[in-house]
Amino acid sequence: MIVRYLANLSTGRLILWCYFIWYCVVLVRYFDPSLKLWLTSLGLSLIIGVALYLSTTAADKIQVRLDFWKTFRLFLMPFCVSSFAALVKGKGFILIFSPQPGEVLMAAAGCLALCALVFILKRAHRPPAGASGAQPEPEPSLRDRS
């Protein structure tokens, strides 16, 4: 199941996974057990997540419905952004980059490893050229895109 998921991973979702890898490296390195930090991040996630959900689904004439994972991401992203900012405050970061080269290399290596794995799986699961009966997949509808 995971192999099929990775083999069919879109470029956009691959980028989102790389963001998450980067976040996890920072989270592990700079974890702060402060309940206040995590409750603030959760509160911001709820407020901003609801606003993102409303702005995404409140179209004038088009009925937009989001599946669970798309909705989950609308809430997860503000949580990660706010907790990331709180974790690195005063630690010498420039944008998202740690002042410690090893941490930047670790996060970049994780992203590159995932990209390489996805590339390999996509090539391995590609139907052979000219295979009979192979039909191109239809273009996803607006509702299916993330």
Short summary of the structure?
The protein is mainly α and 146 residues long.
Description:
With 146 residues, the chain is mostly helical. The chain is flat. It is 64% helix and 0% strand. The protein contains 5 helices and no strands. The model has no long low-confidence stretch (mean pLDDT 90).
SSE topology string: HHHHH
Parts with pLDDT < 50 across at least 5 consecutive residues: none
Structural class, from secondary structure content? mainly alpha
- Helix proportion range: 55-70%
Mean pLDDT, rounded to whole units?
90
Query: What is the rounded Rg?
Result: 19 Å
Distance between the termini: 20 Å
The geometry reads as flat
Strand content: under 5%
Helix count, per DSSP?
5
Number of strands: 0
Largest pleated sheet: none
Helix and strand topology:
Layout: H1 2-7, H2 11-30, H3 35-57, H4 68-88, H5 101-124
Helix pairs in contact: 2-4, 2-5, 3-4
Spell out the key features of this protein.
single chain; 146 residues; mainly alpha; 64% helix
